[in-house]
Amino acid sequence: MPATTEAGQVAAALRQARRVVVAMHQAPDGDTTGSALALAAALRRLGVEVEVVGPDPIIAPLRFLPRAEEAQTWAARPSTPRADVVVTVDCGEASRAGGLDVLRSAGALLINLDHHASNSRFGDLNWVEPRAVAVGELVLRLVDEWELLLAEDVALPLYVSLATDTEGFRVGVREGRVFRMAARLADTGLDVEDVHRRLFEEEPLAVMRLRAWALQHLQQAPSGHLAWLALPRRVLTRFGVEPYQTDGLIALVRALRGVHLAVFLREEPEGLVKVSLRSRPPVEARRIAERLGGGGHTHAAAALVSGRLPGVQAETLALASELYGEDERWTDSSTF
User: pTM for the complete prediction?
Assistant: First the structure.
């Protein structure tokens, strides 16, 4: 039995279900996609009928995963009988998976499977473990509870879940158990070199050119402890890059020597700005994200903020100054 009461209840509820909907979050990344596909594959081994659904399609770099082509969006999903269980994966808020009304209408019992400390506990059952490096870690524990053998349709998406949420096992890995899990998955026969190439090395020329632009527009506070990059939507249009292809840009900001807080701001449609934050102790990115209306992990967090890019940048940097005493002599906003 899994270690916590919540985990045991989740394992039992899913094991007893006949139909399950597994819900990913919007703009699906490797963790929500890998966790959803692995959980669906495991449940099918138990004889459960499963759908994988989300607000948005699975992104192109992750469509090599087994049965990724079968995942649907809520908008395109045909009318089907109500499921026994809907389980969200990697969703700190119900809105990220399509909204509470959508989730409730799809199934009788709502299970919330997550690893974000800021999770709002919106499910009937909530298994939330901030210590887990990815939701894939929780899915692996379920697979073990059900005493299922690890085959590629489960092991490959779980490996992708772990690898992407740790940025290639470079971020948030403070214990050997993460590598032991990865080794266990790799030992099923995965071509790990091919997986890492697909996830971290294959980028279109347009994305490479955007990275060159980003390196020219990085900004850093005089103290050196804070750095940021603001990406206007017109720049995305100029380079012909999809929003999901910019997710790696925050790593450029964080890579600056001496930086304790890295901020990446991306202008979104409809007057919104996505603010991504990465930090090193003693700075806690989540404190800033929560003040902006978002959430996440202690050192990796995000928020979707209403406003124009220059104003949201100023608000974010002011919060950094308020919470952590960062130098307020910011550079001008000439990049906008």
Answer: 0.89
pLDDT tens track for 42-87 = 999 999 999 999 999 999 999 999 999 999 999 999 888 899 999 9
Return the structure tokens found at 24: 């990913």
pLDDT in tens, 212-238: 999 999 999 988 899 999 999 999 999
Please, where in the chain does CATH 3.90.1640.10 lie? Answer: 5-200
d(CA 291, CA 284): 12
Closest of 260, 248, 261 to residue 214, by C-alpha: 248
Question: Using CA atoms, how far apart are residues 265 and 334, in angstroms rounded to an integer?
Answer: 15
SS3 at position 46 = coil
Tokens of 199: 């996830």
Instruction: Give the torsion sign (CA, 105, 109, 114, 118).
Output: positive
**What are the residues whose beta carbons fall under 8 Å from the beta carbon of 234, sequence distance 6 or more?**
none
| 3-state SS, residue 35 | helix
What is 5-200's CATH topology?
inorganic pyrophosphatase (n-terminal core) (3.90.1640)
Tokens of 76: 């395109």
Question: pLDDT (tens digit, 9 = 90+) per residue, 98-133?
Answer: 999 999 999 999 999 999 988 999 999 999 999 999
Instruction: Report the CATH number of the 205-324 domain.
Output: 3.10.310.30
